[in-house]
Amino acid sequence: MTEKSENKINKLRRPMVGKVVSNKMDKSVSVAIERLIKHPIYGKYIRRTTKIVAHDEDNKCREGDIVSISPCKPISKNKSWNVVNINNAGTDK
After folding, report:
1. Domains in the chain: how many in total?
2. What is the pLDDT along the chain (93 residues), one digit of tens a residue?
3. Which end of the chain is more exposed for a tag (fewer CB within 10 A), N or C?
């Protein structure tokens, strides 16, 4: 493989950090990931949010927690991410 394709694969497999917005499902959590993008014409940075459903085997995550998630093989129709660890335990609901 070339170096460019290896970088692309590593970028796709890297863990991401987000905030748990819902833990009402059994062994699943919804994680909101925020990113900043630059507007193509005006140059202003805009905040974009992506919600990802991740697998939480032990149901340890609570709403407001900051978690690290990593991609995995598809577990269900909407789940293809695993919760790796809980970085900061949040208290807001």
Report:
1. 1
2. 676 666 665 666 789 999 999 999 999 999 999 999 999 999 999 999 999 999 999 999 999 999 999 999 999 999 999 999 999 877 655
3. C
Length of the chain: 93
Could you tell me whether strands 16-22 and 45-55 are parallel, antiparallel, or unpaired per DSSP bridges? unpaired
- The C-alpha atoms of residue 79 and residue 44 are separated, in whole angstroms, by 33
Residue 62 in domain: yes
Its domain, for residue 69, covers 11-88
| C-alpha pair distances (Å), 21 with each of 18, 33, 58 | 9, 10, 17
Measuring CA to CA, which residue among 72, 82, 77, 73 is closest to residue 31? 82
